[in-house]
């Protein structure tokens, strides 16, 4: 199976029926905001210099549909030119569909991944001890933890029991306690899009993809749309210490988003996010294949509760934010040696999909081998001024 994206596999199940906005690199012009339409990609940068500007309007989907701009290419042409190998630098390629928004992520929002974080902590990031620790933790916590509402009296009672047994964990605290874990996944403009290489730090020996739905949030806290994300994770680094979370989560090319941002309108709402099933496929150059799925129905905190903990009187984002909602995917099957679980190999292809949002595909490379992130906010402003968009 060829996971590299084409228009048919990249688009949502209803094709261009939704309000889809993306970004492409146009040689000589720089990052450009595009409306995804039946006949191809239309550059609307002169109307909306950034995706942030579009998301700040009262009705982004309606404004996107009304925006006029030059058709620059067919989607298949841009997708074919996006992978680094064989890219023609004189033609457009796909970027992540957000720009000035802060890139944030919520952790341990699913019970399965919460328990895996506890296991990482107990084995200090050593995959060899994970299987034994997994069974020990499950015996202590039991099967009812999945039904607990974070911050509830029942969750507090379980905490008291676990503390008394010496089994409490910082991951249980954010998994079933009142406060969610929300952290910075990547700097502004550092995320990569579909078809690009995604990065895993070369020193990591235990890591995995994290397939997630990602919400786009305006500066007022309104949720305006959604996309897909891969919250690439270094399990050995975070397992050594939760204080190493920045090193585990934020490396060159370690935040993937896309393929496009689908804006909310009749036919696509927050309830579609709540009902989504996200699938994951990993294909290795060695013939390895992994298939899994994650149901948003199993999330322990409602997406809008996570957004309320992200932004409000306690914290503001003048340019808006995007929020990874977390994953229940935590692979435990051995890929290499027995007892070592799953970890990426150089060249793995990772496809993350859900019918309403399409498919995000990335090749895994060492972060050090991915294209360095060199185009920052000042560069974007200069490019927009040069083309008369600001």
UniProtKB/TrEMBL annotation:
One of its GO terms (molecular function) is hydrolase activity. Residues 221-364 form the Fumarylacetoacetase-like C-terminal domain. Pfam families: FAA_hydrolase. It comes from the Bacteria. Keywords: Hydrolase, Metal-binding. InterPro entries: FAH (IPR051121), Fumarylacetoacetase-like_C (IPR011234), Fumarylacetoacetase_C_sf (IPR036663). Belongs to the FAH family. This is Fumarylacetoacetate hydrolase family protein. It comes from Streptomyces hyderabadensis.
